[in-house]
Amino acid sequence: MSAIRTALIGCGTVCDWHLEELDKLRDLFDVRCLCDSVPGKAQALAQKWRVGGWTEDFQQVLDDPLIECVWILTPPFNHAELAIAALRANKHVFCEKPLAKTSAQCQEVVRVAEDSQRVFLLGYPMRFSADAGNLRKVVQSGVLGRPVVLRDVWAVCKGADSPAIHDAELGGGVVFEHTHWLDFVTWMFGPARKVYASTRKLKLGPTSAHDTVIAVIDFVSGDQALWSESWAASGLGWEPLCVGRAGIRPTFDVVGEQGVLQFPNAQGEKVLSLYRYDRPEKPVDSWTWQHDWGTNDDAFPNEHRHLYACIRHGTPPVCQARDGLRAVQLAEAILESSRSGQPVFLQP
Q1: Containing domain of residue 269, as a range?
Q2: pLDDT attached to residue 158
């Protein structure tokens, strides 16, 4: 089958990451055009990755009958507007996470996407990570018993260079930027029932978004997750805090009635270990963690191939607009709990 004629909207760091992988998949995707409202950005990236067309006008992309699929790679504040416009122009849509800045915007995208005859795939790469998928598979196998408690602590890091990540009005902040974690736990455990959380701003400098979060999430299934994360390492970047330790991987365990999963292992290696309480002397099984969570050397190629299968072969998207709505609703509940100092209950 022919390659999918594609346009990418928003030419920042994430676009560059996707283009690096798409350059290896030219038999699947024919990237015809890059678009960014900032003069010169689309042209520079197009020349870097040998893309033939570029524009500052999104409407030009929508009006091009040869473009089959539009990728929304802009900051979250305009995801909904661009995705809805592309769907109404009869384009397939790939949209980076989060789906939108608010749950109200998400609901409108869900309505338009589900009424359309086009493919809509939401870019939560942890769903395409072999390592994250294996963690989910082991938990859902019941080997630990159910329910379980997941305790997850991410390394302190700086965050991406985009100012949108650190600007609450543009949809940034640790909760919204890391809705991929919220999507992953709901993918693993099902819908959330209750949230109790505290968020705050610790990063120095002119940032308006909360960069640090601690949240306890109870699920309808009876499972529970404790999430702690901070992007407060202003000015330090990734390498001093992360490289040589565990990349951007978390430290976590999953505790059940019959056993526990632990990462990293007792030697600090990038290994997921399974311990059983009836045989506690050593792990009964273990898996080497091959990649960082959702990085482009693992999840992005799988994600791209899945999008091709959805469009050309009718494969159902594994992450749809309604999944994005659920993640943003959970993020909003975390922020509301932090603001009010009270638990927030969600409708399953």
Answers
A1: 127-295+329-345
A2: 62
